């Protein structure tokens, strides 16, 4: 079974599937080792790793190159966050096959205007395109894929934009009609009430996707019991963990005037070399170097 087939089967199986964010191949490998089912190729994390806002500042090529690198480093499916699709339906038609060829098993596209503003920013500029326009982008993505199992996930930001449940449901159903294989419903409320109300009202046939960044008390067991959610994405925890760990280590080194105290608490250089795939390279050397 291909990774694309595995992802499609997993999100429709009735059992909750999990994806962890990554911003480079190393973070993706760590997520795979931890037991997550898929990798979320996060635009937010990639932007943060370049120290620029998550506002379509990085080029499509930069994002695509990183997705290709991540897909080559892990054996689990990669879900690529392509923001608004880098343009209109024409752009989407060209972009989707490139992500497919790069090794992604799915794309997630949101119904904001270009350039976007990150969803969880306080007082962010949350402007949505017309429903019909986004339907065209979803239909273009579905038509452009070469593998029928490649997953197209439509993300509606109606709740983020404060447009209410009726608008969110209307848009989600319209996107399902246009060919979306799943619907990502997003919220920045600090409790899950808004998302739970949407899930309860959801009459569609395709599974839902959640990103519970703002309402972390909603556990996987809770989500599984809802019965309509096929995938939960932990959307920015890799970059947040990295920033927190680096900040603490750097501060301690400065405070202690050296690395003697902190060094023994860090992963060893040997462990980093293992993660780099050194054993595989040594096998190639043994087999082919003459």
UniProtKB/TrEMBL annotation:
Which terms are listed as keywords in the entry?
Hydrolase, Pyruvate
Answer yes or no on keyword Zinc: no
Name the source's superkingdom. Bacteria
Entry keyword Hydrolase: yes
One GO MF term on file is: hydrolase activity
Q: Which InterPro entries match?
A: ICL/PEPM, PPH, Pyrv/PenolPyrv_kinase-like_dom, Pyrv_kinase-like_dom_sf
Q: Which PANTHER family match?
A: PHOSPHOENOLPYRUVATE CARBOXYLASE, PHOSPHOENOLPYRUVATE PHOSPHOMUTASE
Family membership: Belongs to the isocitrate lyase/PEP mutase superfamily. PEP mutase family.
User: In its UniProt entry, what is this protein called?
Assistant: Phosphonopyruvate hydrolase
